[in-house]
Structure formats: structure tokens, C-alpha cells
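Quick illustration for those who missed Monday's session on complexes.
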Amino acid sequence: MRMYDLIYTKKLGGALSPEQIAFWVKGAADGSIPDEQSASLLMATCWRGMTTDETLALTLAMRDSGKRMDLSSVPGTKVDKHSTGGVGDKTTLILGPIVAACGVPCPMFSGRGLGHTGGTVDKFAAIPGLKVELTDAEFLRSLKETRFANSAPTGDIAPADKKLYALRDVTATVESIPLITASIMSKKLAGGADALVLDVKCGPTAFMKTLEDARTLARSMVAVGTAHGMQIRALITRMDAPLGWAIGNALEVMESVEILRGEHADSELAQMSFRLAAEMLIMGGAAQTLPEALAKVQASIRDGSALETLRRFTSLNGGDARALDDFSRLPQAGQTIDVLADRAGVVAAIDGRALGLLAMELGAGRKDRNDVLDLGVGIRVHARVGQRLEKGDKVFTAYAKAGYRLHDEAYRATLELMEGPPSQGSWLLDTIGC
Ligand code: URA
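Prediction with uracil bound:
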């Protein structure tokens, strides 16, 4: 088989066979196929797309490029969640403990942040001492003892994805529905969960800008999961602002704990986390209907069992659980600087991507894979979409290193203000799947 022929076929819009796709993925991972040929095929795939069968074959080949977690020693239906990502998205820190407290095992592998996006692993790393790269044995122990496990994926889960994702990153080929589907689903299938809830973000700063594209991606991932016997359901959620008030690692831990204490219960972040958790409870067999599942979620907040699960998970994995009750034990910033509105108006949108980049400049995110984060810095977002602002209102607070000089105009520029009344609408745009 020649890689040239695969590229040529895809360039003309043809379909590749499962054998051809397996040949490519194996060669990309072991280095026998040069990067320039993989990059060409990635670009041709971006333009020409893939059939469902090709996407399935690509997912399987990538899953099988590494190990698969065996979670069969953990009783019950294991339910995972994946979000296509958004600035301020800390739902894993909230719903993982809730779902586990309600009796459903929740195994999760999470990524590190790069560029404007934060990574769940970095958020957990803000809890002093917490081990965020667990061995398989530690992962299983956490899942068995607390019903919650979260770890950075070890290098041997879908290594072909690691290789191809790095190439996509530098060849402008990330935004392709079959490539995103195979990348996400190969890791999820290798992770060993029985069921998966997807949160597909839709909005100007999300991967999927339109509802139509978000639906197509959701259907593609649901089709691949279903074909592999996974229970899978996707929620399509609006993203026109950062999720919640916190951007930055320790700040996001604080906000998650506040929600687990029962605060901010009406916020979009809390409502979204509760709904995703409820979907997970239904899949895990802990509830039959959405109202029943949501009632269980609320009970786990009210009786403190969700927060207690986070404390137990933290202690078991080497972290200082006292930091969850006493935020002064979390990493701190050297100074806080308020940014005020310079004119009146109604907030129509807040550019999460731009704020994510500003948080990265503060040290909360990585410009380069090897950057060391400052876990205490970040941004508190006071403004909310739909809110009427007056000149002089506090819109952001930057948590920065001592001596940091802030360009507050860049912060204000992330706010899209309008004159008229706020538009109303649910954060939940659609649901796809079982
Ligand atoms: N997240 C992934 O893991 N892969 C993609 O391709 C896009 C988002």
C-alpha cells in the first residue's frame, strides 16, 4: 500500500477503505509515514470530508493504536462526560463528584490547556498536592473508593491521536467534523466507560459556530459511539460568554466548590452542570426520568455528599482537602485589579476566546506546551450576558502577579454592548441521541 494513493483518492473526494485508514494511522504513529504525507491527507480530509464508515474506521484505528482501560472490576455502568471545550468550563469538577455521590461511577481522563483554553487537569492541579497523573492502579482505586477518577491520559491512550492532533494543530486542520469525531471518540472508547454524555458547544468562539455544524458533529459522535455499543447522548449548549465567573485554575476550583456548596444555583454554569449530571445518572441507571435525576442531583448538593466526594477524591489522591473549605490554602495572585465599564449598554456577548488569551497572558494558560502555569492568577467576570451596565460598573477583576501592568482596554474590548433589551434564550439548544 502506498500513502500517495490514499492522498490522491481523498484529494479527488473518494472514500478510503478501513485497511487503508489503518495503514495510515499505524504509519503516522510509528513514524514510518512522514509528517508531510499525513499533513496532506489531513488537509484533503478537511476539504473532502469522510463517510460515516471512514470516520468509524479512523476512530477504531486510533483507539487501537494504544491501550484500552479495563474498568470491568468496577461494578455498575461507568459514565463519562466530554465537552468540546469553552473558556471557564469547569463542569467536570462539579458534575464528577455529584454523579459519584449519587452512586454512578464516573471515570474521566482530562486534558491540559493550551492557548486560550483551560484544561481540567490544570484546574485540579491547583488543589495543593493533588496528583493529576494517576497510574492505572491509582485510577482504578479512586474509581472504586470514591466512584470518581480524573487523570491526565497516559501517553499510551490513543497515541496516534496525539501525533495527528499535533500535526492538525500546525496545519490548520483541527476544524473538521470527522477528524474531531475520531480524535475525541478514540480516546473515549479507549478510556473504557460504558456510557458518555457529550456537551457540544456552539457559538462564535466555539469550534462549532452554527447550530447546524454543532448538530452534525453531535450526530457524528453519537453514531460512532452507538456503533461501538456505547450509550451516548449529546447536549448542544450555547457559548456566547465564558462559563461562570472564574477563568484561571485556582479561581475555577473556588467557583466549583461554591456550586457544590449550593451557591450560584441559578447560574448557567450550575444549571448546565446539573443537567449534564442528571443525564449521566439516567445513563448510569440511578434515575429513570429527568425530574427524578435532577432531584437526586439537588439532594447531593443539599446533604453535602457531592462536596464530601470531592474532599475524599482529593485526599485519596494526595491533595489537601482543607483547601476546599479554606480557599486561602489555594494558590493566590499577588494583586487584584478591577476593570470598569467606560460606557453604558446591555451586554450582548463576552468574547471568551479573547478573555482566555488575556488569562493566558496573566500566566493562567500555556503559550507553549512546556510553559509552567501560575495557578493563582486569572480573571473574575462580573458582567453577564443580558445585563445592563452603567459607565463605571465593575466588569472584570484581574488576579495578577505583583507588579503586572494591565491593559484594561483589551478587557473592555471583549464586551459586546448593544443599546436594546437583552435577548433571552435557553443555554440548551438541542439534544441528540438516546
Ligand atoms: N478535542 C479533541 O480531543 N480533539 C479534537 O479534535 C478537538 C477537540
